TrEMBL record:
HAMAP family: GTP_cyclohydrol_B (MF_01527_B). It comes from Fodinibius halophilus. It comes from the Bacteria. Keywords: Hydrolase. Pathway: Cofactor biosynthesis; 7,8-dihydroneopterin triphosphate biosynthesis; 7,8-dihydroneopterin triphosphate from GTP: step 1/1. Belongs to the GTP cyclohydrolase IV family. This is GTP cyclohydrolase FolE2.
């Protein structure tokens, strides 16, 4: 039963005084006795997937503004009930007009540690990054969009690490299927089409120094050669078929080709690559995972 003294209406003229604000319950900063469950540290607590437009640098000096999904977390010590959750977003917004690249995350993470009185912090910015792609033979151009995330971590010692995640889509023509098809043609004059499939390499690279997304994409293109195409006329389709003939690959080959390419890149400290061939022969996928695995790096 609601007390008859309580009013059911919203007062649009009501303003909040300092005294009133001070009287508001502040549960997250309450005593440890309010903690539910084990009174232990929490490694990451914060906000996932808040969105805003952010600026990123292009290699030509231009900036591009992209819708970005942000995950921001801090560590919480034992004995503390909760974090001041809104500060994850409010502190981030202080940087909203800046240009974002992996090293920039260090500043935001420092700010998180300061504003949320926390020892460790984590940040991940996810966005779709467009790069213009030229068709193979017809001279047309179209935008290829790459799923990208830049990630930064800061541990309790204040050590900063930065990462880029990139998904690179390519076609993989099966070398075994090619040989079997040739065999059928030669021995029995039977038309036969080897299978190939849309494939994706999920890269995580830890950086020694800054690298443009364009450079990372170029490494993938140089390693795999058969990136999926945007603009395709008949002459491009034929070129793509020849390209796939020239660069056939098993999922193991894809992983090792990328390893060879990234291993020589000095700006990259460590990497993990997961290649997924979404088989057209099978109803399941063929997968490989390879990592450089330097000491204290990724595994
Ligand atoms: N810690 C915590 N807060 C939550 C959660 N879900 C919602 N919130 C709310 O997040 C709101 C904002 O938190 P604060 O940043 O502490 O807000 P504030 O105390 O007005 O802001 P400051 O002036 O920075 O102290 C609070 O009203 C919380 O109830 C949760 O799971 N954990």
């Amino acid at each position: 039963m609601i007390s008859t003294k309580l009013k059911r209406y919203y007062d649009p003229t009501f303003t909040v005084s300092d005294d009133y604000k001070a009287s508001l319950p502040d549960l997250q900063n309450g005593p440890a006795s309010l903690i539910e469950g084990a009174d232990v540290p929490i490694q990451q607590v914060g906000i996932s997937d808040f969105k805003l437009p952010l600026k990123y640098p292009r290699p030509d000096g231009e900036l591009i503004t992209l819708e970005t999904s942000v995950d921001g977390y801090v560590g919480l010590e034992a004995g503390k009930k909760g974090i001041n959750m809104s500060r994850i977003m409010r502190s981030f917004y202080e940087f909203q007009d800046d240009v974002f690249h992996p090293d920039k995350l260090e500043e935001v993470l420092e700010k998180y540690r300061e504003d949320l009185d926390s020892q460790s912090a984590y940040l991940r910015l996810s966005f779709n990054y467009p790069i213009s792609q030229e068709s193979l033979r017809s001279g047309l151009e179209g935008y290829q969009y790459y799923t990208v995330a830049i990630e930064g971590t800061m541990n309790t010692n204040g050590d900063f690490r930065s990462f880029i995640h990139l998904d690179f889509e390519y076609s993989s023509a099966c070398p075994c299927s090619y040989e079997l098809s040739e065999h059928a043609r030669e021995k029995r004059e039977v038309v036969s089409i080897p299978h190939s499939q849309r494939s994706v390499a999920n890269l995580t690279v830890e950086l020694n120094e800054e690298i443009f997304i364009e450079d990372l994409v170029q490494h993938c293109q140089d390693a795999l050669m058969t990136e999926t195409q945007v603009m395709v006329k008949r002459e491009d389709e034929q070129a793509f078929a020849e390209m796939n003939g020239a660069y056939q690959k098993f999922v193991e080959d894809a992983a090792r080709l990328l390893y060879e390419e990234l291993n020589d890149e000095e700006r990259i400290k460590d990497f993990v690559i997961r290649c997924v061939h979404m088989e057209s022969l099978h109803s399941h996928d063929a997968v490989s995972r390879i990592c450089k695995g330097v000491k204290n790096g990724l595994r």
